[in-house]
Design a protein that fits this description.
mainly alpha
Length: 115
């Protein structure tokens, strides 16, 4: 059993890993990545990371667009939609930063290992 560092939520990291796997599956055209009937495809980490970052970027652009439309008076956009999209973009970005921090930490741990 591993002990997590203070302030680190391992369930959020696992959730982000699952999100990366799902984004990778979407990038490769797979509909259901957890289906046992489909043969397992080799997933390229760089493609999965890029798909995840593109998803976060898309959420941020969507939130910015909705905010701009709301501020100019577009009546098809209401405040709750703007706030929800901004919160989704913020949470996605925070999760991405946590994954990055975990990857950097793992890199430092590997580099500190004696061979």
């Amino acid at each position: 059993m591993s002990v997590s560092p203070p302030g680190m939520d391992l369930s959020r990291i696992q959730s982000m890993i699952d999100h990366l796997k799902a984004a990778s599956a979407r990038a490769h055209g797979s509909v259901n990545p957890l289906s046992a009937a489909q043969p397992t495809k080799k997933v390229d980490f760089a493609d999965a990371l890029k798909a995840s970052l593109d998803s976060v970027n898309g959420a941020q652009k969507n939130a910015e667009s909705l905010g701009q439309r709301f501020s100019v008076g577009d009546e098809s956009v209401n405040l709750s939609d703007v706030m929800i999209s901004q919160q989704k973009a913020s949470i996605a970005f925070q999760a991405t930063v946590q994954v990055r921090n975990k990857l950097v930490s793992a890199y430092h741990d590997i580099m500190a290992m004696q061979v």
